Amino acid sequence: MKLSKAEEEAKKKLGPWGLLAEKHWREHRPNMVRELEKRGILYRSLLRAEKNAENMCIQLTNELPKKGVPSGLAAAMARSQALREYILLPSEEDVPKLGERPER
Fold this sequence. Notes:
Helices cover 68% and strands 0% of the residues. The protein is an all-alpha fold.
């Protein structure tokens, strides 16, 4: 399938987290990836996820020390949470529809 110009541009802009997200999503959320590809927005979605993760990481890295978390630990916690929230999404088997709580 040929990518639109917007998708080509987004694909070129992907950084390490966007590339990690693509690999992870293709393995763990293949139905979501197929749907995003069908709609022609996969790479823009990956780029948005990467930017959201970066912004969350920066925000938490700045906020956590104000709550008494040592700065080195704050950076690691911020990175971990940002990756879980936007990049390393749960598998479709565990959470078929994102935003819904998994059944226990």
